[in-house]
Amino acid sequence: MEVNGEERLRALTFRLCDARGVSGDEAEVRSILRQELKGDARTDTLGNLLVRRADPAGGREPVRVMLAAHQDEVGFMVTRIEKDGRLRFAVVGGIDPRVLPGLAVLVGGEGIPGVIGVGPPHLLEPGATPSLPRADDLLIDVGCSGCEEAERWFKVGDYATFATRARELGSGVIMAKALDDRAGCAVLLEVLRGEYPGVELHGAFTVQEELGLRGARVAAHAIAPQVGLALEGTICADGPTREEQEWVTRLGAGPALSLMDRTSIANGALLTMLQEVGRAGGIPLQLRRSAMGGNDAGAMSRALEGAATASVSVPCRYLHGPASVASLADIAASIRLVAGFLRELGRTGLPPRP
């Protein structure tokens, strides 16, 4: 399957990234996905958006494949409105507290601007090193004069997201919030436009991945996949402060295949097939050099009787921060890789069991 132009892929990725969808509040993202799918999808009780494509091949039972990309992003939830009108919050998902002080955010359904306040350096004693504040000690300042005014606009349980708009930094390099995992959502959307004889394809845009793969667990039990691929954004760590052998992935070097993480071990036959498809199609690939983290493959691998799983990841710098960086070429290569893999799987059938 060919991607219909870099400009269209860029616009789709930007639109998805700019949508606000903290874990448990994915409705805005889901609405965009539904529009792209022309309504050809259903939403389950938890909020997963599920799509089925069946393309039987000559009497043979098609391989049941689940492709998972999660809608949700890390963010914040309002837990209390203080007397002075500022908002106390809890972090939703894994966010490094070092990025919080001075961070611009959008709060509530209307996306009202706010800032996570911190005292100015002028108040430090001469020579003193500022300590890193805990998230519990920080507040979102929304400019209200007191609790009464703030309660007209906000309530406990409101979500807040990073106030970052997607943009292009250089030739084919983009900056946006939520590239984990809107990059994966873009890949899944494009793959679903193709045809794959011999494959019963289930696309699952999952929810609450950042809180423990919750949506994928529900979806995988409903689908009972034989093969599962997690489509995600993953860490790069390819900066000058680390030796090259410590880089997890490298920006612009193609999609990354994971051998193992904290939630699953990739199926060896699937990894081999993905690598062969990459070589045959001239698609650059890299191996993810870390066993940290986890993704929806963990939930798919343990559903019901189990599934053979692997992960195809788009390398992203500064993951789970206010602005991540990715390569459009890596996203496009991921689309070609997954589409080619599905065609090959439909042709050859299920890989052998261990």
The gyration radius over C-alpha positions equals: 21 Å
Number of separate domains: 2
Helix percent band: 25-40%
* Low-pLDDT windows of residues: none
Strand fraction: 25-35%
What is the SS-derived class?
alpha+beta
Query: CATH superfamily of the largest domain, called what?
Result: Zn peptidases
Distance between the termini: 31 Å
- Helix and strand pattern: HHEEEEEEEEHEEEHEHEEHEHEEH
Sheet with most strands: 11 strands, mixed
Broad shape? globular
CATH-scheme architecture of the largest domain: 3-Layer(aba) Sandwich
Number of helices: 8
What is the CATH C level class of the largest domain, in words?
Alpha Beta
Number of strands: 17
CATH topology of the largest domain: Aminopeptidase
Mean of all residue-level pLDDT scores: 90
Name some characteristics of this structure:
single chain, 354 residues, alpha+beta, Aminopeptidase, Elongation Factor Tu (Ef-tu), domain 3, 2 domains, eleven-stranded mixed β-sheet, six-stranded antiparallel barrel, globular
Tell me briefly what this model is:
The protein has 354 residues and is of the alpha+beta class. The chain has helices spanning 6-18, 27-36, 147-153, 179-191, 214-223, 268-281, 297-301, 328-348, and strands at 42-43, 49-55, 63-70, 75-81, 87-92, 104-107, 112-116, 139-141, 159-162, 167-170, 173-176, 199-206, 227-235, 256-258, 286-288, 308-317, 324-327. The two termini are 31 Å apart.
Description:
A hairpin with a 5-residue loop joins strand 1 (42-43) and strand 2 (49-55). The mean pLDDT is 90. This protein is of the alpha+beta class. The chain has 8 helices and 17 strands. It has helices at 6-18, 27-36, 147-153, 179-191, 214-223, 268-281, 297-301, 328-348; strands spanning 42-43, 49-55, 63-70, 75-81, 87-92, 104-107, 112-116, 139-141, 159-162, 167-170, 173-176, 199-206, 227-235, 256-258, 286-288, 308-317, 324-327. It folds into 2 domains: 6-73 and 177-348, Zn peptidases (Aminopeptidase); 75-162, Elongation Factor Tu (Ef-tu), domain 3 (Beta Barrel), CATH 2.40.30.
